[in-house]
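--- STAGE predict ---
source: upstream dedup step, 1 unique chain passed
mode: sequence only
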Amino acid sequence: MKSEEELIDFELSAAAREFSGEDIRVSWEEAFRDDPDDPPLTPFQADYLNEREGLEHPPPGLEDAAYDRGTSESLTQAHTELREADLDWEEVAAGNLESQARYLLAPLADPKSVERATLLQEKIMNNWLSGELDMGAGSSVRKFMRLAHVVSNAKRLRERFPAVASDPVGFFESDAVRHMPMIRLFSFLLAALSIDGRRKKPQASDLHDLRHLTYGLSRCDIVTADRRSCELVRARSLIPRGVTLCEAHRLTDTANATRQRLPE
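--- STAGE serialize ---
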């Protein structure tokens, strides 16, 4: 599958086209570099799930994985505050969605975003001149690269779509943006995680699990996840129509779901 950044860029362009009055449809196809149905699925065999080379993606870099684990564990205080505030799931989900959209689209109407990018660039240059340039996860370089991409993307949307340029606030607040699958699903899943009272402490795999679910539920027919993640999704009825969610350890369920989708 393509990267999270690529899919969000595609969905932002699709939202801008919809906001501009164009007929646009977001589907699973843009998420893949190759057609997963070519060649077509064949009848299920017992060894199908054991073909690990075709089913497993390369593991992430150890540094990135460690950074994600640290970020997941650092959310303990945020989760606690949300639960103590007695907010319901809908309120937290709406707040998450607002924050996600604002981060991606702030440069459309906020010149301070460009100023922040410039200040971060200066910091990077100073580190480079002092021989202390760090390319690691969470470093100033990584943050600048991401911010620079967001600023560049907003500039492209403004230049390509007159409707967005003339009404950036309207675009930001539009259903076209609020219904982007990648940010909508992630915001809802994170809200469910935040207020799930059974979780006394965030787990190191939380961010990885949420990204996995966002990818799968937004683009795939059959999604597998661990039992904890499946319970989180089912409790909030976040399974899109037409999608089958299976617990990863229950291979029989995955096999049956695959059989049902095979061509006659």
